[in-house]
Amino acid sequence: MAATILQQDPHSLRESRENILEIAIGREVRAFRRKQEITVADLSAATGLSIGMLSKIENGNTSPSLTTLQTLANALSVPLTAFFRGFEESRMAVHTKAGEGVEQEREGTRSNHQYNLLGHLGANASGVIVEPYLITLSDEADVFPTFQHAGIEMIYMLEGEVDYRHGNNVYPMKPGDTLFFDADAPHGPDVLVKLPARYLSVISYPQKS
């Protein structure tokens, strides 16, 4: 069977917090431009910025000056602070200890079957990609830098103990624990407390158009 190429690398690294800011600004600039149905060429003509520079800004490949951002804000008729909205918004995480899931009654539930709601960050429409992983950490060398990617993620601890970082918080994960979080925040195993450690990781994100 041929290997399947994933549409995104869940372990892709973001090198610095500055790089995250550039990406967040670029996303907002593109979103405001598209919402107003303005082409890159039109925005270039309105601001005096080259198409190449605008492309770099929207893709998070350059750090625009405040003067440039103010020029863009004026052309798009939005406040300057609107470009920082995606960077400043809070990143959610739901940590559920073993046995603390909320039991739900669902249509079609059979006798002796329980459905536990382990976390919820909002429903997604059609076109959502889901990628399940079984992660095994057997050596201290398996600790790797935090990573980021689009979408939301749930990890369910099967074996061992891991202190798992999400943003500025660290959650002690033991067998049966669940962590459900916004995957755009830096996250990953911070301390391997008890090895070997195994956990399920389920990532979901919108399919690219």
Automatic annotation (TrEMBL):
List the signal peptide residues: none
Q: Does the keyword DNA-binding apply?
A: yes
What sequence ranges are listed for the domain HTH cro/C1-type? 29-83
InterPro entries hit by this protein: Cro/C1-type_HTH (IPR001387), Cupin_2 (IPR013096), Lambda_DNA-bd_dom_sf (IPR010982), RmlC-like_jellyroll (IPR014710), RmlC_Cupin_sf (IPR011051), TransReg_Diox_bact_type (IPR050807)
Q: Where are the transmembrane segments?
A: none
Keyword Protease annotated: no
Read off the CDD domains from this record. Answer: cupin_XRE_C (cd02209), HTH_XRE (cd00093)
Q: Record's SMART domains? A: HTH_XRE (SM00530)
Alphabetized UniProt keyword annotations: DNA-binding
What is this protein called in UniProt?
HTH cro/C1-type domain-containing protein
Q: Which domain of life is it from?
A: Bacteria
Q: Which residues form a coiled coil?
A: none
